[in-house]
Amino acid sequence: MSIDNLIPFSELTEEEQRALARKGGQASVKARREKKMMREIINTILEMPLKGDSRSKMVSAEEVSSFAKLKGKNVDVQTGIVMAQVINALKGDRQAAEFLRDTSGQSIANKLDITGALPVVFSGEDKLIDDDAGN
Question: How confident is the model over 62-73, as pLDDT tens digits?
Answer without folding.
Answer: 555 555 454 555
